Amino acid sequence: MKKNLTSPIAITMGEPSGIGPEIIIKTWLKKLDPKYKFFVIGNYNFFLKWKKILNLDIPIKKIIEPDETDNLFSEFLPIIDIPFSEDFTIGKPSKANKDSILNSIKYGVNYIKNKKCSSIITCPVQKNIFYGNSFNFPGMTEFLGSLVTEKCTPTMMLHSSELKIVLMTTHIPLREINSTLNTKDIYNKIRIAISYLSNYFCIKKPNIAVTGLNPHLGEMIEENSEENNIIVPAIKQLISEGYNVKGPIASDSLFYKENRKKFDLVVCMYHDQGLIPIKTIDFWNTVNITLGLPFLRISPDHGTALDIAGRGIGNPSSLLQSIKITKQILENKNSIHV
Length: 338
Description:
It is a single chain. This protein folds into 2 domains: 1-148 and 294-338, Isopropylmalate Dehydrogenase; 153-292, Isopropylmalate Dehydrogenase. Helix content is 36%, strand content 16%. The chain has 11 helices and 12 strands. It has helices at residues 20-30, 44-54, 69-72, 98-113, 140-145, 177-180, 183-201, 226-240, 257-260, 271-282, 317-336; strands at 9-12, 38-42, 60-63, 77-81, 119-122, 155-159, 164-167, 207-211, 244-249, 265-268, 287-291, 297-300. A 12-stranded mixed sheet has the order 3-4-2-1-5-12-11-6-7-10-8-9. Helix 7 crosses helix 8. The longest helix has 20 residues, at 317-336. The radius of gyration is 20 Å and the shape is globular.
């Protein structure tokens, strides 16, 4: 049975003092595909203020329910209004607004659960305003996992035109990586990635490359390396189950062009090991996809850009790409369920 593709996409505003509102406005002005309409979950008055800051006479309209998007989208940017504790100052995030930012994401997830929207795209947030007693997650990937009742393993994938990567650890200090990595997580996350490569991208038997952790695969420490003790056992288990997995491969030689063509996915052990090559290769068309959730979540893979907020030079390319990839994934999932 085909799934309904006419439900709108929810886009959360993200950090109001950054470029999130600007790239949303610029994305609406381009109106990529009338088939894939979106509504914003954010603060209506903030968008009125951003219109003046950017000197853009964009028509916006407050809505109550996502299904109002269909009739309004061609003429108005539809916004579901979320109250915020205090006004924003350009380039200066406020901790007073952190709960409202998180609530906008919760609203989007609830709309998906109630089949009022097809998916969620989250604009960049300033993570350091969240950390504290009430927010015990490394980032939004793990926070999103906490919003579902099903048992899940949220897994970060970065997708670009030339490369897909999955991270085994996300926003943690380098000194904690070796103690965080474990064979079970590597095995489970690669299994999840293989499943989603099929469901999201119609890649039925993907070729997977797995990086090592240490320079030259830990040759200086031999038997006691994380490669031998943690990574190799996961790879051997996956190979024994019939998956096309190769590794560990030294990351300093993995990402050159000819090598990238051999693999559908590269599995990286830590954040910068994967983010540096993929952003260098295709910065503006890289997006963040959360695998392992019972719904589709994508995010532009850049930050709040506080240093350029309010100058009108925010680049909407990654948000536009997020919508394009959302469209591709929804259509692929729909074809599977025909």
